[in-house]
């Protein structure tokens, strides 16, 4: 008898107990659910939402959970986009409710009641249908029945996404004619060109189902190579975080390598630079560095207590940031997703995930692809459309590094560096090389479209509709 799973092979979940639970649970049934209402949202959802699981293998019993939102514009003609979230280990729900999806949280101080959801007027689902996926296994509501199934890395995870796509399209053949794109930001953007390469191999081998691939979108993309971090030093100098003297000392003693110091003086200079960089928020140098508050009791006798019959057991609520912090909206998702009514509405299988965490940092994950830059080159050389965008206030993956590896391909420039605009104001700067468009989003940090939703929507609309930015 196949039973659901252990959430994670982490030490706090004893293996023996996990196997005993799995042995007595009934077989799984039912893969997809149409969701018309969500707790915390006022009224029926104004868009089509389907949630479900796709099983990847029988041996480990790996099941990936997804959220599918049909385009609110013209679903029969609009593209379909698979959107992945960074981490690794962050739930696809982040894309659904923070980045490009149809809902946002109403950001008000949490008082123990259910966080409220509101419509996102700049949802990219007004332009295309979106699949948000909990991957790798162990993130969000995805799970494996065999604890060994949680031991994954870049390579396995990418292949699992390809398997997911093939099975999902077999169950949803009506979307096969639609143009298909992959998308994601941060660490997920490292995976996107790799997954795209695997999809290309499936297409070139004429394996069914034949996906109508057109390209991909990546934001503030991690590559895995040293280039991501190497450009933190010149960027920090350019925005005034480090002095001319420090930058000159780094250039003189580090020979262009600011990640692996080759001598003592270089190491000392980089340590000083490192200390100065961490005086600011590296995800957005304009944001405050938020002080985290220890979690408040969730079952005390105050007016804001959580009722046990409404919520699952909350073992590890995240530290509470200040309400003024950009990350406060992330804090709210923990309580919303661990509400029993939410689990019921989404169709979460009972006994599979005992506690939802937005970004699972306990995963046994191996970053075994050292760099994705070569995969970008492969896809671009085959003529597929690519959009690469960066928040220009991101110090985690500075746009300087991203533009550097793009320039290393030596593609011909077809539209030179210029400003692009929204409502008559500069929204960023852009350059187009053959089929690759690079754009910055002015004033945005890491996961850039969370910071400037209106400008991000305009960028996506123009690119998806194949118009110049």
Automatic annotation (TrEMBL):
It comes from the Eukaryota. Pfam families: Peptidase_S10. GO terms for biological process: proteolysis; secondary metabolic process. InterPro entries: Peptidase_S10. GO terms for molecular function: acyltransferase activity, transferring groups other than amino-acyl groups; serine-type carboxypeptidase activity. Residues 1-31 form the signal peptide. Keywords: Glycoprotein, Signal. The keyword Transmembrane does not apply. Belongs to the peptidase S10 family. This is Uncharacterized protein. It comes from Zizania palustris.
């Amino acid at each position: 008898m196949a039973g659901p799973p252990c959430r994670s092979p982490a030490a706090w979940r004893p293996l023996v107990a996990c196997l005993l639970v799995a042995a007595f649970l009934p077989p799984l049934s039912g893969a997809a659910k149409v969701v018309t209402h969500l707790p915390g949202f006022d009224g029926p959802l104004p868009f089509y939402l389907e949630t479900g699981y796709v099983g990847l293998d029988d041996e480990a019993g790996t099941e990936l959970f997804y959220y599918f939102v049909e385009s609110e514009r013209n679903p029969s003609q609009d593209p379909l986009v698979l959107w992945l979230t960074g981490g690794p280990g962050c739930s696809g729900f982040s894309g659904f409710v923070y980045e490009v999806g149809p809902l946002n949280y109403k950001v008000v101080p949490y008082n123990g009641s259910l966080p409220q959801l509101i419509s996102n007027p700049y949802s990219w689902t007004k332009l295309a249908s979106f699949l948000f996926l909990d991957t790798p296994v162990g993130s969000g509501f995805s799970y494996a029945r065999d604890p060994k199934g949680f031991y994954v890395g870049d390579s396995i995870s990418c292949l699992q996404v390809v398997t997911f796509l093939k099975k999902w399209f077999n169950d949803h053949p009506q979307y096969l004619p639609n143009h298909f794109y992959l998308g994601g930001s941060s660490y997920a953007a490292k995976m996107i060109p790799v997954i795209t390469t695997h999809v290309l191999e499936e297409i070139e081998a004429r394996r069914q189902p034949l996906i109508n691939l057109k390209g991909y979108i990546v934001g503030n993309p991690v590559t895995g190579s040293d280039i991501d971090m190497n450009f933190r030093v010149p960027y920090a100098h350019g925005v005034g975080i480090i002095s001319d003297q420090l930058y000159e000392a780094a250039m003189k003693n580090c020979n262009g390598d600011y990640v692996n110091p080759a001598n003592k003086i270089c190491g000392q200079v980089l340590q000083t630079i490192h200390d100065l960089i961490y005086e600011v928020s590296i995800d957005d140098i304009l944001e405050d560095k938020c002080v985290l508050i220890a979690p408040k009791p969730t079952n005390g006798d105050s007016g804001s207590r959580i009722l046990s019959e409404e919520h699952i057991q909350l073992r590890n609520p995240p530290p509470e940031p200040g309400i003024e912090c950009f990350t406060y909206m992330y804090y709210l998702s923990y309580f919303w997703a661990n509400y029993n009514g939410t689990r019921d509405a989404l169709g979460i299988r009972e006994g599979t995930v005992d506690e939802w965490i937005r970004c699972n940092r306990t995963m046994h994950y191996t970053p075994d692809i050292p760099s994705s830059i070569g995969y970008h080159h492969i896809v671009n050389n085959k003529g597929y459309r690519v959009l690469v965008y960066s928040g220009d206030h991101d110090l985690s993956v500075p746009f300087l590094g991203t533009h550097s590896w793009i320039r290393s391909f030596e593609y011909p420039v077809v539209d030179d560096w210029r400003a692009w605009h929204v409502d008559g104001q500069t929204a960023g700067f852009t350059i187009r090389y053959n089929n690759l468009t690079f754009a910055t989003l002015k004033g945005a940090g890491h996961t850039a479209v969370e910071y400037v939703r209106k400008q991000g929507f305009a960028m996506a609309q123009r690119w998806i509709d194949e118009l110049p930015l």
